[in-house]
Amino acid sequence: MPRPRPEPVQVVKQRRDTALSALVHGVPYINFLGIEFERRGDELTAILPFDDKLIGNPLLPAIHGGVTAGFLETTAVIGLAWSGLWDDIESGRISMESLTEGHLPRLPKTIDFTVDYLRSGLPRDAYARARVNRSGRRYASVHVEAWQDQRDVLFAQATGHFLMPSKDE
Amino acid sequence: MEPDKAKMAEHFINAIPHCKALNMRLTDIGAGKAEMELPYDAKIVGDPETGVLHGGAVSALMDTCCGAAAMCHPSSPSGTATIDLRIDYMRAATPGQNVRTKAECYHITRSVAFVRATAFDDDDARPVATATGAFTVQRS
After folding, report:
1. B134 phi and psi, to 5 degrees?
2. Residue A4 resides in a domain
3. ipTM > 0.85?
4. Minimal CA separation from A157 to chain B, in Å
């Protein structure tokens, strides 16, 4: 039997970008902080564009520790949800129409989150990537790294545990 | 709160742009302890289906409150920054209710302040979250 023709690249990209955008922009807090996600295949990079309202120490100035925590937690939750949804998005089990209408899949719930503040967050854009170290049926463990100017110079890292949404919900 | 302390508290929040953006209030402070409040706001919701606030906003509240507790310790540090903060989320904060937190700096050395905090909504019997953190101690 001949192999089916691969889908046109723009169809693939549009499906993935639509799903990601619905997931990210459906959460008010993510929009409040101004976090965006860039996608390369299934790899996500979270971007936090600098804004004055993110400042925690006006003398330095430095990004608020709570903003850093929120940015890293968002990166972890979206990264975890994205990796779990990938197969459903690719197979078409999740319809793009329902996603764009705001019927979002249930997001993982944070059980605990530990942030390691390595240096102060400078008043400029920040980036973060999440690595899902373990994702079981009920629990997941995720590690996040965040940097600003240099990828290898982290300003914060975090580890969190999450409760996965039950599949039959 | 006494008028001078209230004034100091207001000044403290107004100096932190992110706390102002979230309309946080410092409701009590003194001797290594601080209490703060975060008003419920639709713009900081983390789960649009239930209207539950995002953990990040609760983190910002608890981080600030822990920092304030460290700052007002009788050994009077001149400044502080978070070294590490762990937050345990016990349950979702009830949508529509403010989140209040109480932080206590329970030990301080020349260079490190150890702080813990608990967050509640209107139900005082069931905490929403707890936090433990280590903060730097800057000496002038």
Report:
1. -115, 135
2. no
3. yes
4. 10
